[in-house]
């Protein structure tokens, strides 16, 4: 599997002839330094954790240009359909859907989810984390935006992820120290990629505190260069 981080919480997974984007926030993302055309090339699936604009991002544009299927919660998905989305794979927390070469399971996240219309918040379903499994590949757990919660241990026991994308930015998600505690106490993964930092001034500027808090732990921490794929 090849993983590419595009800044904030946007990732691309390439495996078994598949290209999957998670939370593709490109336009307006100060941390996005890649070529968008290259980032979306060959993408047939998009997975969204929740409805905030810094996660939905370019979903509608990519789905329109690529014919991609969007997998997300029912409420957010139907809102996207109202905006013109044609291929929706709706689901909800705890459910799993089979997309042929891989499956997606939505799991709990402690956050919020919505859009702002005329200055008023519009509810777009519960926030989620996403588990992506493919035969012969390490299971990936994108935590979405979340606080720490002890049921992360149950998620790890049920799905046995090997790779975790963990938000560390503070203010809207876990802090670097709390995120490290979540990894050490609950997740039992082999590889951790911090995310949701270094994009906006009001969240953590870098991963230094997280790296420090993870010292001595068995999980490998990867802080990738934005837009540069790495193998796992």
Q: Give the CA-based shape.
A: globular
CATH class: Alpha Beta
CATH superfamily, please? Ribonuclease Z/Hydroxyacylglutathione hydrolase-like
What percent of residues are in strands? 25-35%
Identify low-pLDDT runs. none
Question: Please, how many domains?
Answer: 1
Provide key terms for this protein.
single chain; 232 residues; alpha/beta; Metallo-beta-lactamase, Chain A; 7-stranded mixed β-sheet; 7 helices; globular
Description:
It is built from seven helices and 16 strands. The chain has 232 residues and is an alpha/beta fold. The protein is globular, with a radius of gyration of 16 Å. It starts with a strand and ends with a strand. It has one domain (2-224): Ribonuclease Z/Hydroxyacylglutathione hydrolase-like (Metallo-beta-lactamase, Chain A). It has a seven-stranded mixed β-sheet, with helices on one face. Strands 7-8-11-12-13-14-15 form a seven-stranded mixed β-sheet, with helices on one face. It has a two-stranded antiparallel ribbon with strand order 9-10. Helix content is 22%, strand content 28%. It has helices spanning 36-40, 53-56, 59-66, 74-82, 152-159, 176-187, 208-213; strands at residues 2-5, 11-15, 18-22, 45-47, 69-73, 88-91, 96-98, 103-108, 114-117, 120-123, 128-133, 140-142, 163-167, 191-195, 220-221, 230-231.
